Amino acid sequence: MTPEESRKAAEFFLRKIDEYIDHPVRFMEVCGTHTVAIFRSGIRQLLPEKVELVSGPGCPVCVTPNDYMDMAIAYAKEENNIIATFGDMLKVPGTTSSLIEANTRGADIRIIYSPLDALQMARDNPSRNIIFLGVGFETTAPLTAATIQAARQENIKNFFVLTSHKWTDAPVKALLSDDKVNVDGFLLPGHVCVITGEGPFSFVAEKYKKSAVVTGFEALDILQAVYMLAKQIHEKRAEIENAYKRVVKYNGNIIAQKAIMEVFDKTAATWRGFGLIEQSGMSIKDEYSEYDALKCIKGDKEISKENPACCCGDVLRGIIKPPQCPLFKKICTPDKPAGACMVSVEGACHAWYKYGQGRYHYGR
Amino acid sequence: MCLAVPAKIIEKNNMMATVDVEGIKRQISLMLLPDAQTGDFVLMHAGFAIQLIDKQEAEITTQLLKEVSLDDA
Questions:
Q1: pLDDT tens digits for A113-155?
Q2: 3-class secondary-structure state, position A198
Q3: Can you say whether the dihedral through the CA atoms of A321, A324, A326, A329 is positive or negative?
Q4: Min Cα–Cα distance to chain B from A283, Å
Q5: pLDDT at residue A307, rounded to an integer
Q6: Cβ–Cβ contact A228 with B under 8 A
Q7: How confident is the model at residue A357 (pLDDT cuts 50, 70, 90)?
Q8: Which residues make beta-bridge pairs with A29?
Q9: Alpha-carbon distance values, A143 to A68, A86, A116, A361 (Å)
Q10: Among A117, A114, A193, A148, residue whose Cα is nearest residue A283
Q11: Which of A84, A171, A314, A349 supports an S-S bond with A319, CB 3.0-4.6 Å?
Q12: CA atoms of A276 and A170, how far apart (whole Å)
């Protein structure tokens, strides 16, 4: 498509959204990668004021509780352990410290791109424990599962996972059954649905009668999805539609789903800001317990507490916007984040901090 | 965290593939997408191919966007 064609398509979507919506509506982007794409492309600024986009719970870093970070930090303090992690976990605050602070005190923490890099680290360092921080939703969990399976196949004994993998349908259910949360439709996470397909989100339309559209991460993908949500509302429909068919198949990636089910059990898990949500976490099955860091490696963890002044929970539920948090930009900044939403580039607070108060303001 | 990017498979060797992402080459695993073949475009996430990119669907999307860009109604 030429830039001119893209511009005209965007104009079409914006005009139709304005036509279709005759009262204030709130659409939630479940996924943090959407949050960033929306800010970077200035979509909030382009939409009519009656259409509000709110950020949801879909940033795995942001929903990781202090308790998990404290355990990772406890492991990092032991000399024989190497922590292998995606880079965005380094600055996430635990109760009194973070991984990056542990690193400056001499802990061996290594940033990896793929869980398979952690497996290679295990091969290269046979006398040390490699602890991979398994964080992420359905997009990332099958990669961890496949890596655990590969470790078993090769009989690698020094690779472990501290898992905080989570299912994204669970917090959406929690949001929809929370009276304080007021959302008219959802932009569903494209790369989660690549794995899961559309099925796990059917409850949004069937049980809660809300509209939802699976979408990709280009500005036009997102605008098209908002247009499709607006059209559903205009036509008084509540369905799951897919604006990202080039990669999201109806049934998802079955092999990846099987890898998750083979290695993980569905269990209750704690989400920062939401607390405990039933059936929302992935814990390593007993059959694979030799790879479960919690079961195999001792760590001297501090008693975990969440910062009571941090409003990440209300931000993640779309109840307040980041600037309404008393810590925002004052105590909590990307350089010294108080809450996880300020750490991750996919976090709502980070995006608001970086791109302005919901208004894209450079280059214009 | 869930960032995934399109990549083209330029060589397949059992469960591993060499892919090209805008001129940068790297090895990725095909464990979760074993049927992918050389020449296919795949969505790549953290060292794994996780889905085939459907050229036909991509073209339908592009065509649809072109059509709406012509809509002056």
A1: 999 999 999 999 999 999 999 999 999 999 999 999 999 999 9
A2: coil
A3: positive
A4: 19
A5: 86
A6: no
A7: low
A8: A55, A187
A9: 20, 13, 8, 37
A10: A148
A11: A314
A12: 11
Chain B contacts of A196, Cβ < 8 Å?
Answer: none
**pLDDT of B73 strictly over 70:** no
User: Tell me: the pLDDT tens digits for A232-284?
Assistant: 999 999 999 999 999 999 999 999 999 999 999 999 999 988 899 999 999 99
| Contact assignment for B1 to A150 by CB distance below 8 Å | no
Residue A52 bridge partners (DSSP): A26
Cα torsion at A81, A285, A111, B7 (round to 10°)? 150
CA A130 – CA A147 distance, rounded (Å): 13
What is the rounded CA–CA span in Å between residue A74 and residue A317? 30
Amino acid (one-letter) located at A281: G
Residue A64: which of A341, A279, A251 has the closest Cα? A341
| Amino acid in the structure at residue A5 | E
Q: Which residue has the tokens 């990440």?
A: A312
- Closest by alpha carbon to A243, among A208, A271, A212, A286? A212
Q: Find how far residue A111's CA is from the centre of its chain.
A: 19
Residues 6+ apart with CB under 8 A from B64: none
CB contact under 8 A, A255 and B62: no
Name the token pair of A279. 């059936």
Structure tokens at A171: 């917090």
